[in-house]
């Protein structure tokens, strides 16, 4: 999915976290791509990027934030615009899930992560750690649709790890777990893996 996955090798200390928590225990592969939007992932999967000859026990999907980051701010402030983009993103995620089912011969458990929170990035006003932020409504709308998708499809489940990137009050991004209000730090990856993602996939391994 998104850059929050391939960022692991680039964030200082994050690769060590990945190796200790995942790579040393499980046969896992990261297939995220920086800047990926839903259309890009659909394209890559349709062109053969899914590992051939494999049937993963679990597939974890995280995608969608870059679609919102590339949306004009005037659209983000329009109810009609929000609904249009949310339908586009969630509809594409549904197609990705269907394609993953097909590519895995309907044998893999698919865990669709809710889009993680992020501050009002790139605004030049020091609000990159704000939450609620410019992206709270877009993220919530998309996550509601993802949850509904998971509830109506067997073999698919929704996973919300967002609270682990927020501070204790739930108002504001945790500056220890994210280094820029968007991407997790090494500690952020450790928390996401050990407190949310690994417990969710454990029953299927």
Automatic annotation (TrEMBL):
Instruction: Tell me the ranges covered by the SGNH hydrolase-type esterase domain, including all copies.
Output: 17-191
Per its record, what are the GO molecular function terms? phosphatidylcholine lysophospholipase activity
Entry-linked SUPFAM superfamilies: SGNH hydrolase
Highest taxon in the source lineage: Eukaryota
> One Pfam annotation, family name?
Lipase_GDSL_2
Stored PANTHER family: SGNH HYDROLASE-TYPE ESTERASE DOMAIN-CONTAINING PROTEIN, THIOESTERASE 1/PROTEASE 1/LYSOPHOSPHOLIPASE L1
Q: What is this protein called?
A: SGNH hydrolase-type esterase domain-containing protein
Organism per entry = Tetraselmis chuii
